[in-house]
Fold this protein.
Amino acid sequence: MEYAEQGPVRFFLWACTGQGVVGYQQQFCCGENWQTYILKSGPGTGKGRLLAAVRDRLVARGETVQEMICPLDPPALDGLLIPQRGRCVLDGTAPHPLEPRYWEITERLIHLGQAVDVQRVRQHAAGIIAATDACAAAQDQLCRQLAQAAALKQEIKRIVRPCVAAAEVWQQADRLAAREIPPAAGGEEQRRFLSAVTPDGVTTLYSTLQALCPRVIVLQDECGEVSALLTGRLLHRAAEARQPVIACRCTLEPEETPEHILLPGIGTAFTVSNRWHRVDFPVYRRIHAARFTDAERLRKRRQRLSFLRRALRETMDQAVAAAQSIRERHRLLEQTVEQAVDPIESERLMQKIAAEIVLESP
């Protein structure tokens, strides 16, 4: 059974992670029957306005649009997925560059610099170069801090691991899968980021979870070891059932087991709740990690765990501060370039391209 989407569906197009900048844009270039528009131009040239214009036209027609937002300046748009039309529009510039694989066959480049007075931009060359370099340095710092946070998270899980009854966790996952994940005609795993480190803190797009999956099953787990075992097993069972899956990875460990598993075909999701991702809305069911944990053995490790959690919290606070610095500098870049944009020509260009993308007459 297909569930209708209720409310906006948003994912992060990419994320700064413990392994650098990671994005799943290539998944949106879905083959011969899809058309991908890749936007290329500098900050302040109108990529966000173009994406908003396309979205607004489609929403006015009652069509389904998935919004891909920027983790360093939410809710600014970085892309749109238009499944009914077999089209997507993506910002293909740094720090998440995307290049066409089959240029003018399945991908098309769109340049938005025609409305920019290049000479006026070059008058601010020194400031633009300094701000761009500062953004890159802050991004490197952010990724280093997230790598440190990932190491702390792994150490917490390592300490907790001997206290967890893994076999019982897997049995619980198998029972959940048997009850909640029926066989399907066939589907594949798509990767997304539902959570990211943003200038506003660790942000999870729970409106998307609720829009796609009215039936939410939550695992309450502060340490992460039980949830990693459970979601890993559930993802495997979903693949066996051939259910379409949206697997949303952690920005600290993008190659590890997902934090959020969405099964939109049946309207069910499995998600983790802890101090970083607090599920504070009504859900179908909650499962507590304590059920699978030896409390006495864990108590003996309490002091070390307390130290590691404090260090993780401080490291994440520093990462958020770095994200704030990036946003401030990037906005300065946008403001500088916007002064050199012809607003009339820019608006004409935006509407022309937006009309083409939604298959309207210019």
Residues 1-5 have pLDDT under 50 and may be disordered. The first helix runs from residue 47 to 60.
